[in-house]
Amino acid sequence: MDAIALALIAIVFYCAAATYQLLALQRKAPNRPPMIRLLGAAAVLNHGLSVWLAIFQSDGLHLGLTEMSLLATFTISLMLLISSFKKPVLNLSIGVFPMSMLALIFAIWGPVSAPSNHLPPGLTLHILSSLVAYSLIVIAACQALLVSIQNYQLKHKQTRGIIQVLPPLQTMERLLFELIFSGVIILTIAIGSGFIFIENLFAQHLAHKTVLSLMAWLVFAVLLAGHRWLGWRGMTAVRWTLGGATLLVLGYFGSKVALEILLN
């Protein structure tokens, strides 16, 4: 089976899982986490196989914008499913799974990158840690959006809709800061390995990626410090989280978009 067929199968399962979870949040269907996990696992399995076929080809490794988008969204969806066994994060599938669907659709019709040379272990560590950090921060951003919705409904005394099936706000905020803390730890490793193993991290094609990643790290560090010593929470935490996530996404994908699409 080729990568396109696997991608189409993954899209179907992602769509089914996200749609059912949305209906459950709207209380139009019973809440069935095992079924969501099963549909999500089928989607992630096919997604992962399509990633493998897209990256590891006969002419070498393909690590362009299309392939890295596939790999990043696969990592995010996989981490969400694994985390859902211990933490109440399965509701985030209504945002994460459609994002994976878009990456798969882009991979089917998007540009094919040129093969890369063999990657040394240090650079592999940098890429993998960057992916994990990006995945945790994106999940945290989705969590922040749910926290903002929950805050709004509580402030306006709305007792119907999503708020009925979400955990208490205190639990949601605690989970948000756990995700951010884990993301910052891995992001620190990613940035540190970049400085160690990449010869010129401030080269012309990497400068804005490096600066934006450092800015994102600083935003999250300030947020964690503000939460620890100033009690920041609620919409303050939401704004800082979304701001830091935006910087990280721009840094992660901005260089590839500029080099591979805009500048060809």
Concise overview:
Keywords: Membrane, Transmembrane, Transmembrane helix. By secondary structure, the protein is mainly α. 75% of the residues lie in helices and 3% in strands.
Show unreliable segments: none
Number of self-contained structural domains: 2
Classify the secondary structure makeup into a structural class: mainly alpha
Our Rg estimate from Cα atoms comes to 19 Å
Q: Helix coverage percent of residues?
A: over 70%
Strand order of the largest sheet: 1-2-3
- Overall residue-averaged pLDDT value: 87
Q: What order do the helices and strands follow?
A: HHEEHHEHHHH
Task: Give an overview of the whole structure.
This protein starts with a helix and ends with a helix. With 264 residues, the protein is mostly helical. It is built from eight helices and three strands, in the order ααββααβαααα. The chain is flat. The chain has helices at residues 3-25, 33-55, 65-83, 93-109, 121-155, 169-197, 207-230, 234-262; strands spanning 56-57, 60-62, 115-116. It has two domains: 1-112; 120-264, no CATH class. β1 (56-57) and β2 form a beta hairpin. The protein has a three-stranded antiparallel sheet.
Question: What's the arrangement of secondary structure elements?
Answer:
Layout: H1 3-25, H2 33-55, E1 56-57, E2 60-62, H3 65-83, H4 93-109, E3 115-116, H5 121-155, H6 169-197, H7 207-230, H8 234-262
Antiparallel strand pairs: 1-2, 2-3
Helix pairs in contact: 1-2, 1-4, 2-3, 3-4, 3-5, 5-6, 5-8, 6-7, 7-8
Keywords:
single chain; mainly alpha; 2 domains; flat
